[in-house]
Design goal:
The protein is 10% helix and 38% strand. The protein is built from 2 helices and 8 strands. The chain has a 5-stranded mixed beta barrel. A 3-stranded antiparallel sheet has the order 2-1-3. The longest helix is centred in the first third of the chain and has 9 residues. The mean pLDDT is 94.
Length: 138
């Protein structure tokens, strides 16, 4: 693993490298994504940065037809909706992200428990594009 730290900018650098990182508390074992400097369970500051496998299952989702301005600028609207969901990683923690590759014309066909794998999606103006966390069916 690269020189990722507990600083929040390392989370975004890891995404730019197509990796998902978090932290593990050395005192109680709590695993967090994104990484945290202080454990929310035992308040320890003894943490290790860890890299996740990027695999998980869909735990919850919603299809968004009326997007915020950033997603509207990315081309989403009521005729081109997008899906966001909560993904339970195989390592335990849950993370929210955009879910790609699902049939949004029939949201009832989307199944909780669908196996997913991490990917990234680029958005933003040409001169300032950024990678964002996303998942797609495995």
């Amino acid at each position: 693993m690269s020189d990722y730290t507990l600083q929040s900018k390392s989370f975004y650098q890891a995404l730019a490298d197509s990796k998902l990182i978090g932290s593990r508390c050395q005192d109680c074992g709590y695993v967090a994504v994104p990484q945290r400097q202080i454990c929310p369970r035992c308040h320890s500051d003894r943490k290790l940065v860890i890299e996740f496998s990027g695999r998980g299952k869909l735990a919850a989702f919603t299809v968004i037809y009326t997007p915020p301005s950033e997603m509207l600028a990315a081309g989403y609207n009521n005729k081109n909706p997008y899906c966001v969901g909560i993904v339970e990683l195989v390592e335990g923690p849950r993370v929210n992200a955009q879910i790609l590759g699902l049939d949004l014309s029939d949201p009832a066909s989307i199944r909780i428990g669908t196996e997913l794998v991490m990917t990234t999606v680029e958005r933003g103006p040409e001169d300032a594009r950024k990678k964002f966390l996303a998942f797609q069916p495995a």
